[in-house]
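Hello Y.,

Per our agreement to keep a running log of every chain we model this quarter, I'm adding this entry. I've kept the format consistent with earlier entries: sequence first, then predicted structure.
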Amino acid sequence: MSTHLFRRFVTIFRVLLPFFLAWLVSFLPLGSRAARQARAARRLREALEQLGIVFIKVGQVVGVRTDTLPPPYAAELARLQDAVRPVPIHLVKPFLEREYGRVLSELFERFDPEPLATASIGQVHRAQWRGREIVVKFLKPDTLQLLETDFELIRRMAGALRRVSGTPIWEDILTVVGRFEAGFREEADFAAERRHAIRLREILAPFPDVVVPETIDELCTPRVLALEFVDGCRIADVEAVRRIVRQPRRLLDRLVHMYAYMILCEGYYHADPHPGNFLVLPDGRLALLDFGMVQTLRAETRQALADLVRAALRGRTDEVVEGFYRLGLVSPDTPRDQARAAIAEIGQINVLQSNTKNRIAAVGEAVERSRVRFLLPEDLAYAFRLIQMLEGVASYYQPGWNVIADGGAGIQAALEDLVSGVASRRAEKRPAGASAQAPGRSVVNGARLRPAESPVRRLFQSVQAWLSPVAERLDSVATPEAGPAESGPGSLPVSNGTAAHAPRSA
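Predicted structure for the entry above:
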């Protein structure tokens, strides 16, 4: 191990040691257990903040699952969305002036010295340019060097544990680490993020209740991204959202429909549905933010996913099992009967167990008992992580909410879009001034479609459920580390760690 890697390893150990000690003490019968647990949670949050990008992102991803974390940990990790030290304006100005080759006061009518939001990778300032309210995001110094060091450490540790334990999970972790590292490097390329924003704006144009901010191309560089300012409240601000949206369930349906459409119909999707990446606007529309983390799926993978989901919704168990093999979710040498029994048991657990934390534990035990080797193909790693994060967002409004069981209407709507191509024509056919149909509730011949009530439709939950313990372990080791969530309450940085476009006060 090189000197700089060893120094970083020592730093990580030293910074995390107070948390480990506090965590051990929390199990001792001394004083208030709640107070000891709160102290350990605070130490964990402080350690993650100090260690930077990769570790903050781990905390952000884990912290999203408020329905599975002890309350003290959920509360402390939630603070990672807003607690990142900003780069001071006296360093911001010369950086941007070098990028633009002009003095900021000549370029902008106003440039706010206080950041709108801050993340580990980037920082966002609000400004006025040619009479327009915009946000300017830039890449923080030394970001790439720190990412490279931490990912190298993760690879080495995972490789050592793979050799020692011989457990297949470490192969999956190494695969995901490579995928996430590549994604993170792309996130640090703001030119790529600009392209993603433009493409997603085009893809989601048929959704009148979804807003993707427009890029200000004249002000964009490989290290700076300028976008129109979007004013709204974060989706995690439940009280504020409920004052705008009377039925939050429709908001969740809209999220599912939008993501299912991107994945199944376009094969090009926003891959970081972090709570800080969604704003609810005063008129009830949903704004999508931060486009550094975008993934693609091959046409054959999209078709296989669509077939599997359709089979699950229709209760066709054998086709669901076949879909697992077709997608590479089950080791090909596993006997069909054995895989079918395992998937059926997991589906039954999901039917009977509504508590998310208990369901995850029960599914993990069932997977171990089955001895079926479930796999996580590289091209689906982000898609399944996405399921976890969407469920985390939904848990703010409905603990235990499940993408398939509770978001079936949105998925079914996307499947209909795939078959009929109506999404590309929806905006054209809607009469001027007509209100948008409630997202996630497709209408055919005047009847609202609802997901079939067959218990087998929950079988596809097994994808999410058995992956929950795996995905959580992968996230805790190899999630793309977008830095700390932004410090601006109105919007957070997600993928590339650059804040979204929300006001400081939501």
